[in-house]
Structure formats: structure tokens, C-alpha cells
Design a protein that fits this description.
about 300 residues, mainly alpha, Globin-like, 2 domains, two-stranded antiparallel sheet, 4 strands, about 5% strand, elongated, bacteriocin, antibiotic, Channel_colicin_C_sf
């Protein structure tokens, strides 16, 4: 809850500037805005706690839910001047003005509370899914650090960021990228190593990967329902064993093409979490998936084992 005796100083962090940007906000919790990746976003204004509207009001507006009927993108509400004033105040970060307008115009309307509460419950469910996704990634980074050290942890942390907003390479480009490093990789990772890594992969239950992927992908706008994890895991194990990466790149590329390049991070986290592939396996799998993203990623991955 808010500290009513203090002033909340919020510092909004935007990639390009320090201005309040309502478009980045997915939900509000305890008077603080968060992005769709669970990142805490904070406006530059100093806002007295008593002037802040409640989370329910902020979440209604952030998600275009009508304060009267509870419908999303209600055409009737949008025609009202009061609605335009409320939205304008929200977009300007004028929260005290927003609170006052809302209190005067909409606070007494209870006939559609059930519908509004239903939509707010969905927002809260989405919020918890985002939190679970953030926790899953944090658990993966922690396990990576404990098993393989700081450099490997840095690699895992940068993967989701590197894939954000990107498209995957086509199969031929990914193969060309991997080919540049194949000889050096094979000098470090021999046949015996490959067999051991493949055996570890074959011991994984595809259902566990699906569950991990589901946790990671919550809040990112895609689901695991369309992915055949049995087939994908089989292609990965076979690629590790045979050093023929084309079928694996085709399979992974087709998945990522439909769901976005961030899927590559989700697949990496999902297969590596709790899997005893060792540092060589970690490096090889990260490098192979990195071939679908960029050369820098491959170099960082193989650098973990001195290649």
C-alpha cells in the first residue's frame, strides 16, 4: 500500500528519454506502473500519495475498460467528454486531476461492478503470470551462475534482451554463421562429449520443457500450445550427436518465425534449466541457438569454454 505520510518520488525510465510514457504501462500495483515484462516504470513527477487514484481505477484506464459498463473499448464511453478528460489526465500523468474526475463522474456507478471486477480479475491474473515469468528467468540465471559462473550468467541474462524485437535468421544464414566456428567448436567438444550431452538431452521429459516454456512465456504474448516439444528436443539431441544442424535450425526457425525471436530465449532456458549437460553442453546449445540470432552471441557462448 501507499505510504500516506510521504511523497512518492517516481523516476520513469524510458529507453529514449526520461518522460512519462503511458504506452509502456501494462498494469499498476500499489500505485506503481509496470511494463508487460514486469519492469518497474516510474514517472518523473513527484506525486503525493493521497493524490493517486486506486490501482483498480488505473488498471481500468490502462486497459481501456469502460468505468460504466466494464466493457473493453466501449464505443459509448469513448464519446463522453469525461472519458476524454480522464484519458488525457492519465496520459499526461496528471493523477490528482484523474482521481477527482473519476470520483465525481464514475465512483457512484455500481450497476456494472460485476463486469468491471471480472475484467480487473483478468488484469490481476495477467499480472501474476508476468511475475511468474520474471521469477522463472531469475531462477534460471541463479542456477546458471551456481553451475557455470558469472560469464555464463551474463550470457543467459543478455539472451532475452538480444532477442527482444528481433527476427530469427533464415536457415542458410544460421548455418553459415555456425560454420565459421564449427572447427573451433569441434576441437573443444569431441565425439565423447557430444554423446554425453545428447544422452543428457534424451533423458529430459518433453513435458518438463513444455512446463518451463509455459512459465517463461507468460506475459510475453505467446503460448506453448503450438510447439511439439518431443520433436524439437529430438532434433536438438540429434544435432548435438551428429553435428548436422540444418534440421534443428529448420525446426527452431519455424517455431520462432510464428512466435518471435524471444522464443529462442524461452527454448534455451526451458531445455537447460535443471538439465545436467555440463558447461560444454551449455556452451554448445547456446551457440547453436545463437546462430539464429547473431554472430556476437555465438562468440560469447563458445568463449565460455575457451574457444
Amino acid at each position: 500500500m501507499y505510504d500516506n505520510k510521504s511523497t512518492i518520488k517516481m523516476i520513469f525510465r524510458n529507453m529514449s528519454n526520461d518522460k512519462y510514457d503511458y504506452r509502456l504501462i501494462k498494469y499498476w500495483e500499489n500505485g506503481r506502473p509496470f511494463s508487460d515484462r514486469g519492469v518497474h516504470l516510474m514517472p518523473t513527477q513527484e506525486i503525493v500519495a493521497e493524490q493517486m487514484p486506486g490501482d483498480d481505477i488505473l488498471n481500468l484506464i490502462a486497459n481501456n475498460i469502460c468505468a460504466v459498463c466494464g466493457e473493453i473499448n466501449c464505443p459509448h464511453w469513448k464519446k463522453e467528454k469525461s472519458y476524454q478528460d480522464v484519458v488525457g489526465a492519465y496520459r499526461d500523468g496528471a493523477f490528482d486531476k484523474l482521481r477527482r474526475i473519476f470520483k465525481i463522474k464514475y465512483a457512484a456507478l455500481h450497476m456494472y461492478d460485476a463486469k468491471k471486477n471480472e475484467e480487473l480479475e483478468k488484469i490481476n491474473a495477467d499480472k501474476e503470470e508476468i511475475k511468474e515469468s520474471v521469477k522463472f528467468a531469475a531462477d534460471f540465471h541463479k542456477e546458471t551462475f551456481e553451475k557455470y559462473g558469472e560469464k555464463a550468467e551474463h550470457l543467459s541474462k543478455s539472451l532475452a534482451d538480444k532477442t527482444q524485437g528481433k527476427n530469427v535468421r533464415n536457415v542458410d544464414d544460421a548455418l553459415k554463421a555456425y560454420e565459421k566456428y564449427r572447427k573451433d567448436i569441434n576441437k573443444k567438444i569431441n565425439r565423447k562429449d557430444r554423446d554425453a550431452i545428447a544422452t543428457a538431452l534424451e533423458s529430459i521429459e518433453a513435458g518438463d520443457i513444455a512446463n518451463n516454456f509455459k512459465k517463461f512465456s507468460k506475459g510475453l504474448g505467446y503460448t506453448s500450445g503450438a510447439i511439439d516439444f518431443v520433436d524439437w528436443l529430438s532434433e536438438l539431441a540429434n544435432a548435438v550427436k551428429t553435428d548436422n544442424w540444418r534440421p534443428f535450425f529448420i525446426k527452431t526457425g519455424s517455431i520462432a518465425a510464428g512466435l518471435g525471436a524471444t522464443t529462442v530465449a524461452g527454448l534455451a532456458f526451458s531445455v537447460l534449466l535443471g538439465t545436467p549437460v555440463g558447461i560444454l553442453g551449455y556452451s554448445l546449445i547456446m551457440a547453436s541457438l545463437g546462430a539464429l540470432i547473431d554472430d556476437e552471441w555465438i562468440e560469447e557462448a563458445i568463449g565460455l569454454v575457451g574457444i
